[in-house]
Specification:
D-Maltodextrin-Binding Protein, domain 2; 2 domains; 10-stranded mixed beta sheet; two-stranded antiparallel ribbon; 12 strands; globular; Bact_solute-bd_prot1
């Protein structure tokens, strides 16, 4: 799974907000609103169309997993179309030509998918087949449903932690990764290098938001920051959110905002071989487990380690906390063969051999407890960090609302302004963000 680059994620959220109401008005497939559609007979001949946003090597691995479904239904024909993002899925639903199964990278949109009816409810299928959702970790379950409406199942997950360049840390006399934010700040300063003219050549830790994996939902768990109040309102104006933003600002001020922006402008794209960590332009960063595969493929010369992300000095209990997200699978409204689509989703989500083989193929974290413990899962020292985080019981999933990722974007935009010195009072600014988010949710009618 790949988190969408910010521009694409925002575009997707805007398109969804404008069109999912229209999806709900479209024609539905059999099995929607009248109980679960029947499963096909084992020897039945049928075809399924699957849309995903995978491409290249990862698309090939997912296609292999789809083909393993034929062990249960040998006469099934599965067409896997890659490079299909949420905008294309939504357009297919609106146009009455959706796939049978839709795979989405954007768990931010689960609230919209479920509340609008764009993805069909799966509870009738789960109840009929006696599926025990307890085999899925709690945090993963949290980002595949909205207010009790489960309209998706997980297909692997991503877990985020700290990456550090061993050589750059060693050159600064550092022998172990930071565990606290004060250590992270110190190590970042010690591993930063400037040219004779003062420009930045190597940055110890790049705090710019939103850039690479520096996104509010990924940072928040490490500071104990919650998204909502007890009564369900936006809850950003808290000491925890303020502490997170103030820590980032200390780093920005150390580099100098303008100097940091000039440095950042010259860095490679997040999923390219020119990524700054690959080029040893940054010494430490937050990222997902999938980066281990990118580094092995694109920058095998980089000596790196992984660890849980540092936490505030006064909150050692948070160490080992992490953020998780993942690929989600749903049956779109109007799908032609929902009964067979459910069987395929169930296979990809819960068949241990399939989950383990796919996790090994694209280096994602398995999304079931059985697969996480399976001896066939390939786990090296750096990947072990993320498996341990996934089994810690301390992961946090994506904040789910009916406005997609608009609330996340609001925090990202605020953080950008704050880091640039455009916000005089962080808590007052967060209260204004709370007001706007609550207003958007109220207007959504959900």
């Amino acid at each position: 799974m790949r988190s969408l680059p910010r521009a694409a994620a925002v575009s997707s959220a805007v398109a969804l907000a404008a069109s999912l109401a229209a999806c709900a008005a479209g024609s539905g497939g059999s099995g929607q609103g009248s109980g679960p559609a029947a499963a096909p007979a084992r020897d039945a001949e049928f075809s399924l169309t699957v849309w995903s946003n995978y491409s290249g090597r990862e698309q090939d691995e997912v296609t292999k997993a789809l083909e393993s479904f034929k062990e249960k239904f040998p006469n099934a024909v599965i067409e896997h179309q890659g490079s299909q993002d949420d905008d294309k899925i939504t357009a297919g639903i609106r146009g009455g030509n959706p796939p049978d199964v839709a795979l989405s990278f954007t768990t931010d949109n689960i609230g919209q998918f479920c509340s609008s009816g764009a993805f069909q409810p799966l509870k009738p299928y789960l109840d009929r087949d006696g599926v025990d959702l307890g085999q899925i970790p709690d945090a993963v379950r949290s980002y595949t449903e909205y207010k009790g409406n489960r309209c998706a199942m997980p297909m692997l997950s991503d877990v985020y932690g700290l990456y550090y360049n061993k050589e750059l840390l060693a050159a600064a006399g550092i022998t172990a990764p930071p565990r606290t934010t004060s250590e992270l700040l110190d190590f970042a300063k010690r591993t930063t290098r400037r040219a004779a003219d003062g420009s930045l050549e190597v940055v110890g830790f790049l705090p710019s938001m939103p850039f690479y994996a520096n996104r509010p939902q990924i940072w928040a768990p490490h500071f104990g920051a919650e998204w909502e109040t007890a009564d369900g309102r936006s809850g950003l104006a808290t000491p925890e959110w303020a502490a997170m933003l103030e820590f980032q600002k200390r780093l920005v001020d150390f580099y100098g905002h303008d100097a940091l922006e000039r440095f950042r402008a010259g860095l490679g794209q997040e999923y390219s071989a020119d990524h700054a960590f690959h080029r040893q332009k940054i010494a430490m960063m937050v990222d997902g487990e999938y980066r281990t595969a990118f580094l092995a493929d694109q920058a095998p010369e980089v000596e790196f380690g992984t660890a849980p992300f540092p936490v505030p000095d006064d909150r050692p209990d948070l160490y080992g906390t992490g953020f998780t997200t993942g690929t989600i699978m749903g049956i779109p409204k109007g799908a032609g063969n929902p009964g067979a689509a459910w069987e395929l989703i169930k296979h990809l989500a819960l068949d241990t051999d399939t989950v383990v083989e796919l996790a090994n193929g694209i280096k994602n974290i398995p999304s079931t407890k059985a697969a996480l413990a399976d001896p066939g899962l390939e786990v090296d020292e750096n990947f072990r960090t993320f498996v341990d985080l996934a089994t810690s019981g301390k992961l946090r999933g994506n904040p789910v609302t009916p406005i997609g990722d608009a609330h996340i974007k609001a925090v990202g935009d605020f953080a950008t302004a704050w880091q640039a010195g455009q916000v005089p009072d962080v808590l007052a600014g967060l209260r204004e963000v709370d007001r706007r988010v609550d207003e958007q949710i109220a207007k959504s009618g959900k």
